[in-house]
Design brief:
single chain; about 190 residues; alpha+beta; four-stranded antiparallel beta sheet; four-stranded mixed beta sheet; globular
């Protein structure tokens, strides 16, 4: 990350968008109050940089819950489809490095690290899908268990036929309709 501080006017605009999205999607976070989320964001202003990066790449981040152990609010990309600014990526830096030609511009893991967020794991992806209909035309890379990754693979998910599917592919593959969804705890 270059600098994890955003300008005051950018902060105000981002908070307005997040507040509006929070109020418009109460089913994603029943029982949670925006004032509590705002207070936490003000206590951790460095997280706004990551949320802004999520927003700028088309993720439409929103609160989807609260960590039972730490009390942190969980922000997740809630765009209907995999974020447009994060598509056509292979899985991780190792996969990116292994491609000899036609390399994508970046990897999902590499970009997530630059943004200060993490990929959803399979359980988190399935939980997100309980809150709406996501990835009905696209797919999203998912944090892949090391045993699968060591064999050269990576996993991704989508929703088709009103059902959530988890698939596999070579980690070096990339497609115009596959990106990744990020998660950030605040």
């Amino acid at each position: 990350m270059e600098s994890n501080i955003i300008e005051p006017e950018q902060k105000d605009l981002l908070l307005d968008v997040l507040s509006w999205r929070f109020a418009g999607n109460m089913g994603r976070h029943p029982g949670l109050q925006w004032d509590e989320v705002l207070r936490r964001l003000e206590e951790h202003p460095e997280k706004l940089w990551s949320l802004r990066a999520m927003e700028e790449t088309g993720g439409e981040p929103d609160v989807i819950g609260r960590d039972k152990n730490t009390g942190e609010f969980i922000f997740c990309d809630c765009a209907p489809e995999s974020p447009k600014g994060r598509r056509s990526l292979c899985y991780d830096p190792e996969a990116l490095q292994s491609r000899k030609e036609h390399k994508p511009r970046q990897s999902a893991i590499g970009m997530a690290e630059e943004m200060g967020i993490s990929l959803l794991n399979e359980e988190q992806y399935r939980e997100l899908q309980q809150l709406g209909r996501f990835d009905t035309k696209t797919s999203s890379w998912i944090a892949t268990p090391s045993a699968i990754r060591q064999l050269g693979g990576a996993i991704f998910g989508d929703r088709r036929y009103d059902r959530v599917f988890i698939y596999h592919n070579g980690a070096e593959s990339y497609y115009a309709a596959r990106g990744f969804r990020g998660l950030l705890k605040v």
